[in-house]
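User: Look at the shape:
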Amino acid sequence: MFDFLKNLDNDIKDALLSQLRNLWTHTSTAIEGNTLTLGETAFVLEEGLTVSGKPLKDHEEVVGHARAIDLVYDIIRKKSDLTENDLFDLHKAVQTERIFDVYKPVGAWKVEPNSTVIISGDTQIIFEYAAPNDVPELMQSWLAMFQKTCKKNMANKEAALTSYVHLHVSFVRIHPFWDGNGRMARLIANIPVIMAGYPPIVVPRERRQEYIESLSEYHLATGTVIVGNKLLPDIDKLDRFKQFCNEAWSGSLKLVDNACKKQQDRKQKR
């Protein structure tokens, strides 16, 4: 299946995939405000039961994100080009709060502008993402960049890390959906990482502020993306975010190391 699962017994493979799913789902949803703990997330996903006192929305979010991980794995297994429809299906999975509003489409590009407030020193700045009318063309460019990235020879961990950073940041700069863009970026930017034989890069919940600040720093340095401009100008300004992602990777890499040690211990006892 995936290289980081090689030489593991089936039960250890299944356990490792569950651990990665639980961690990835918990951290990515918690960054967006989900209140379920890692243990509660695992309980919901493994037992199919709810946690008393926690919002239904939070349960639906983790189930939806876990479903999106399965879709990501399916895309990797098929080894086919990523398409708009794949992105729309992933968005439908993560965007479980269905609001029937034409201005907040689920599984379609945004139709209204979106922005965020960035703090720079003592100054608050309203940063605008790509204009809705620019999104279809920008996302065609992004998909072309994605395909080109996946066809590169990921010879080492550094190459996989770079691919994650470039795809993540360029997707977030566009912000093509009305909501769910962060969870989407943290999912699809991991496709070439997993294809290269590594576990996904998982952003720790407790480092949320640092994650946002490192992205915001690049946004302010490069400005709003428009059609005709590079999706990733001034790549040298990505150093802080790249370093952050490299450090964040340790969580999933440790799970793989632990699984390999468990396998080795089992072999020695045979």
